[in-house]
Specification:
alpha/beta, 38% helix, 9 helices
Length: 271
């Protein structure tokens, strides 16, 4: 099968593309330079030129903080760009895999979110990802994959930020945001496994739940680093963006537990 991947040079894409190739898929990697998803004509020409049998749409505006103020750009990429992909999928009857986020939820639940739960985003980034989901649902052949708290070796993320902080100073980390940390390698394997399943909405993330603070403690422990970590509340940090206080996703056994994933990530990391 020939698969076109948007945003192939992103943190998830750099792990997903090799996993797809290892499974025997022919992968067409596209980046903003080779296919700007906000340029409808370019999207049309690239997709028609390659005739993919499946598209995996990773390209996105992912900076939650900046999205709140840079709304036009976030909307153009996450909503209008997704609609451009959807339109071509409709025309050519191409199934679409759309990567979404736990941030489509408001975080008011106290048990893990199910794929069928109704989204209610509380920040602009989450709203754009939900709007993208709604556009994708216009297709008859689609996978909407929600993942959470992604980290990997190929981009800036919570784990890499923790490991590069000045450990001579105390490190404040919120203890009232709960989620499911997910290694991009495990997410990639989960995405590939979804391709054999029925179309629909899936949660692809590592299993289990942890606060940002406890996650940071585990990161330093796994890497054998001593750090002065201080728990704090979301209201105490300088941010104008609301975030879900509980965004744990039920993955129904699609991926392993987050602690074992973090250990394997650490074994391969260079810090």
């Amino acid at each position: 099968m020939k698969i076109l991947v948007t945003g192939s040079n992103g943190m998830l894409g750099q792990d997903l593309c090799p996993v797809l190739e290892d499974e025997g898929y022919e992968v067409i990697e596209t980046t903003r330079r080779s296919m700007d998803i906000t340029d409808k004509e370019q999207v049309k020409n690239v997709i028609k030129g390659h005739s993919p049998e499946l598209i995996i749409h990773l390209a996105a505006y992912t900076d939650v903080e900046k999205a709140e103020n840079d709304r036009e750009e976030a909307h153009n990429i996450n909503v209008l760009g997704t609609r451009n992909i959807v339109e071509l999928c409709k025309q050519h009857d191409i199934p679409l895999v759309y990567i979404s986020s736990d941030f489509v939820f408001d975080g008011e639940k106290e048990v893990p979110y199910e794929p069928e739960d109704k989204p209610h985003p509380i920040n602009y980034y989450g709203q754009t990802k939900f709007d993208g989901e709604e556009a994708v649902k216009e297709l008859s052949k689609y996978y909407i994959i929600r993942t959470s708290w992604l980290y990997g070796h190929h981009g800036v993320n919570f784990v890499t930020k923790m490991l590069t902080l000045d450990r001579n100073k105390e490190i404040k980390v919120v203890d009232d945001q709960i989620g499911s940390p997910t290694w991009t390698v495990d997410a990639s394997i989960g995405i590939v496994n979804i391709l054999d399943k029925e179309y629909g909405v899936y949660n692809v993330c590592n299993s289990g739940a942890v606060s940002r603070y406890k996650f940071a403690e585990e990161i330093f422990s796994v890497f054998g680093i001593k750090a002065d970590i201080i728990p704090c509340k979301t209201k105490d940090i300088q941010s104008t963006v609301r975030r879900p206080k509980y965004s744990v996703l039920n993955n129904h056994g699609l991926c392993r537990d987050w602690k074992s994933a973090l250990r394997d990530f650490a074994a391969l990391a260079e810090f």
